[in-house]
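Bug #2210: token dump truncated for Glycosyl transferase, group 1 family protein?
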Amino acid sequence: MESCRPQSCTESMKIPPIPPVRLAVYGDLNLNYVDGSAIWAVSLVEALAGLPNVQVSFFLKAAVTKTEVIRPILDLPNVQVIPPDPTGEKVLSPPAALAAIRSHEGARPYTAVVLRGFALCRQAAREPALAGRLWTYLTDIPHQADALGASDRQEIRGIIQASRHVLCQTQQFADYFTSIFPESRGKLHLLPPMIPTQDTNPAGEPARPDAVFRICYAGKFAPLWASREMLATFKDIQQRHGKYVALHVFGDKIHNPPEDPLFKPDVLAGLKKTPGVVWHGRSTRVEVLRQLPGMSLGWAWRPAALEDHTLELSTKFLEYGISGLPVLLNANPVVRGVLGDDYPLFARTEAQARARLADAMCDASLLAEAGARCKAVAGRYTIAAIRRDYLAPLLMPTSLALETPLPKPGKPRLLVAGHDLKFADTLLGRLASRYEITRNYWWGHSHHDVHLSATSHDDADVVFCEWCLPNAVWHTTQPQRQKPVVIRFHRQELYTEHPRRLNMAHVRRMIFVGEETRRAAIETFQWQAHADKLVVIPNYVDTAAFDLPKTPDASFNLGIAGVVPSMKRLDLALDVLEAVRHADPRFRLFIKGRRPQEYPWFRQGRQGETVYYTQLLARIADTPGLRDAVVFDGWGTDMGAWYQKIGAILSVSDYESFHLAVAEGAASGAIPIVRNWEGADEIYPSQWICRDVQEMAGRILAQARDPDIAAQRTQVRQHIQRTFDISHVEAQYDRILAAL
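Reproduced locally. Full output below:
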């Protein structure tokens, strides 16, 4: 990993020879807006185009109607700017953008495809034709581990697997990223922000010809960008200093957040009506850089609510700095790393920002010291420096060959392979002290990097396949390099042909979460001769995460987690709710998970499913006893907190293999109300299982009226802890793996 401090650069330093390459560059951004992401894209193209033997195809999300941002690259001879096809989408979606790239490469594939944007990279990672050629730059993902949900983590792992290079802005982000995704080591590279080399103070032109102290801000206006705070601070200073202070503002991108309807009017009023504010409006980067030498100080301060959650370096800070301006900003870890802890214009709070600004106006030596330090830092981030120190190495022949070094440990080497590793990541991660675990991420059910899969397979002692899909087929059918394979089978695989294609001779164990699914698999795939390999290990529950106090009204709150597809039988849950509300109108039903309308197939009108949910939603809206008693809580990973308000958890599906929501709800102390789907009685206690809606309603009413309900809740918690706690399930997996 490169250092996060780019070294100072001179154009005279030679770039080593680069073989001829064709690069496609696309960012999920619109160049008609003057903002940081658009400027980044143009700067990247300019930097790449300055390398020898490089041809760049720059694909646009939307046709350019304003050329301020793109102007620096329009006349570069080795850059082809490709707007959207006028017969297609006017503003490209991620699939349309990738289709445009494929159509233009034709018989001459691009050496690399450079992409920015999480949704775009996620889509690209699913396309086998792009595997191993992607350079992915991820900025729009949370910079805190607890804000990254399980599905996002899985998508990011797919992106890493499909990428040749994963790019990030700072060493701090790289450290964070590899701590969560250790498999990114070897692929992760720094691509710091970049700024033009600037002749900031032409000879004979005084930088500040009068006594006016000019504060400068260039950028967008948004609540977390401290736009209101900046205008309020300036208004306070202007009232004290009058004509001797001015605020020059560049930019016209003002957010209009629906949760803060007064934000945009407040900012517009401040820009137009505050004495001393000079609003330059929409301005190009070149125009701003030309104005900066006449300024006194750059405003880049943003509140801790934003700065404490970012691991990036502000390009505006660098632009101010390259012009020799001292910069007022917050002391997050990234800027402390480049400026030092003793930089004199750090401010944590708005009050401190006002105080530092007041100090700076009265202290020329402070301004000079801060300005010199900012300029020294910014000089290391010029386009020329980034081109030479960061981009050129990625195009060297050794970088163009995808190599992923694998560890050679003394512990048994366990390879985990599949497209969805949420279960395996948590459980098998607990075995890391006893096994050297590597991961082979597939994107989708069928697509993978064959070279990487083969290398990983060869290096492993045991292969664990999560899901019995093409991943399991591939790892059991490698005739020259046979390895023992353990497969975790889900119910969905019963309805596919993939299990029939396994080489069962190499399957050492196949794990099911319930006996009913195991029996069905034996019968469906004629595995009677292999029955001794097929074992049942239940799903695990992290019981400690659910052992939280209940809310006072929990006994009257029913919960159901996941109501899609229709076999989850939301209609029966509504029947149960109506039955208990006839006896007591305090009951409500809370639904955790995505609404049916949020799935693409709902809008596409999938036959049967769409009709089913349309009728149910109308039933809820039109029935007085349901209208105010059904709450859609939406999808989220906060299940422990959600279960605190749930007194009874429903499982009314037509069929399930295990139904983890029952176990998690019980771990929280919610009383399980389980329909007698096939196999339920082999997983859960018989007293939890009900024959029909009437029996379910009776059990719910009984628990709500039970004066000793706390004892009931303790009993169901203890059953889950004894049976399904992650420590018990971990031990069962450990025994199986140790015996291979």
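Output looks complete on our side. The first strand starts at residue 21 and ends at 27. Marking as cannot-reproduce; reopen if the truncation happens again.
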